[in-house]
Amino acid sequence: MNLLRKLWNNLHLFMALPAILLFGLFFIYPLAQGIGISLTDSNGMAPPRFIGLQNFVDFFHDARAKKDVYNTVFFAIGSAPLLNVFGFLYALILDRPFKGKGFVRAVVYLPAVISPLIMGYVWYFILQPDRGFLYHLLASLHLGTGGSDWLGNANSALIVLVFINVWQFVGMTMIIYLAGLQSIPKELYEAGEIDGAGYLKSLWYITIPMVVQSIKINVVTNIIGSLSVFEVIVALTDGGPGYSTESLSIYILRMLYGSFTGYSTAVAMILFVMIIIPVFLFMRYINKKEFEM
């Protein structure tokens, strides 16, 4: 009888066991393996030799790696906030009743379901100087030739990439915010109107606190996606001109293909930390604010 009672009291542990095993198999074990490889001079062929933190030291002394860190952080700082701001604004607009609302939602969301690699190639042909669609459009409207090589200019290429990334994935952010907005009880807004709250006060004191879960999902996923950006850069600039738009994800892949397995794994560990830190700080901040609400 006591044994049955103990089993019943610990049933939740048995129920969680499959998830714990999968988490350990597909996250903890690969992470431990990665940390181990990052401390060696592995090239994927010869037996690896332990070299301690030398790969990390080499990374912080590599000018190209520093440039890639800058590119990655710049892209994330540009993309993540804009995705959330415009995604939330779109959601507010498309949550209101008007004719054709479903069609507009579909148009905004559609780019998000297309592969970033394919969408990158589409934009590549649109932005081609002298022969791209934008060139001919501006010429036909007598607004100039549009012949500037925005993707071939180191000063503008990264900004163009941020714009394209925001344009493509703002629909995904919008859908999550829409789900949050539609779950807010209408009675809260009616009570706010009775108390004399205008639109902005209702937005600040009712809407935003009630969509905090959507904010969490969007901010975290956009931070992760922006810091690990890969496909859109490969399709549009391939990291060029030079290394002016190369991200850490592309750098990792190129080092891996260059038989620097240990070094590329060390860079992957650094990128992992770069992602974990802002996510952790944001979640700590938003959970504290949510508790205060």
Automatic annotation (TrEMBL):
Lipid bilayer topology: Multi-pass membrane protein
CDD domains reported in the protein's UniProt record: TM_PBP2
Origin: domain of life: Bacteria
Compartment(s): Cell membrane
Location, primary (coarse class): membrane
InterPro entries with a match to the protein in the record: ABC_transporter_permease (IPR051393), MetI-like (IPR000515), MetI-like_sf (IPR035906)
GO-annotated biological processes: transmembrane transport
Domain ABC transmembrane type-1 per the UniProt entry, residue ranges: 69-282
Transferase found in the keyword field: no
Residues passing through the membrane, by range: 12-32, 73-94, 106-126, 157-179, 217-236, 256-283
Keywords from the named record: Cell membrane, Membrane, Transmembrane, Transmembrane helix, Transport
GO cellular component, one term: plasma membrane
Entry's family note: Belongs to the binding-protein-dependent transport system permease family.
Protein name, UniProt field: Sugar ABC transporter permease
Source organism (scientific name): Paenibacillus durus ATCC 35681
